[in-house]
Amino acid sequence: MPSWELWRQDDNGNRVQIRAFADRIEALANALALESGVVHKQTYWVHGSPEPVCRTNRDLYRRLVREGEEMNAAGHSLERFLRGWWQVARLLSGQVRLDLDTVAAMVTAAGIVEPAPLRASWRSASFRHTHEPTTYAHWEAIVLSQIADLADFADQGPLDKYAYFGIAAPRPAGCERAMSTTWYNFDPKTYLECGMAGALGGWSEDDGIRQPLPGPDAELVDEREPGDQPIDFLGWDDLADLARCGQLYE
Prior knowledge:
By secondary structure, this protein is α+β, with helices and mostly antiparallel strands. It has two domains: 4-47; 57-248, no CATH class. Helix content is 42%, strand content 11%. It has helices spanning 24-36, 57-73, 78-89, 100-112, 120-124, 136-155, 188-199, 236-248, and strands at residues 4-9, 15-21, 43-47, 97-99, 167-168, 182-183, 233-235. Helix 1 packs across helix 4 (100-112), helix 3 (78-89) runs antiparallel to helix 6 and helix 7 (188-199) crosses helix 8 (236-248).
């Protein structure tokens, strides 16, 4: 059985193998999770076959839906996941393109890492779209806006069962954020499933999760059809679309 080894180099240059994994994405995710909490100059890497696990949008769709299900089962809130996603993504902010295994590992790591604490400044900051769509900063503005919105929702108490039909975020007056106030999805699985289906496709009627319906969804221009399409890399604009659709796609 193939194996991927997770290694660490400490401050003194000593190298040690931490553990081995039977799944490449799980190994990459654990490396990201560990590195996101590093204070000193320790580095982590994965040794093993470079052959990707995810080659198509459907591969990534299945993987992210599975991770969302596991986060839901563990009782993780969407706000917690987004704080973890932001924390892990900072490690990759200098990269322009991300392969699908790295994207899957980033989402997986967000579910196992101790997420960054909620910062009071996020709730009052201006997150208007002032960055190029292809940059990490553009994606970050969306995710931090969503974290702030969810904190505002939490201040008003538990959501009722009708929230998934669409509800407006109760933002403070004059607050400027990167997204509209409309929300449809409030847990990691629905956010990731709708984010993938709306931004990149990859879903199938056989999944039993969604069925194609006539007409456009809220605020979306291009509705993705079901299917399996090869993808080599994603940019931050693609991840921004995933986050946007995670909030707005039904």
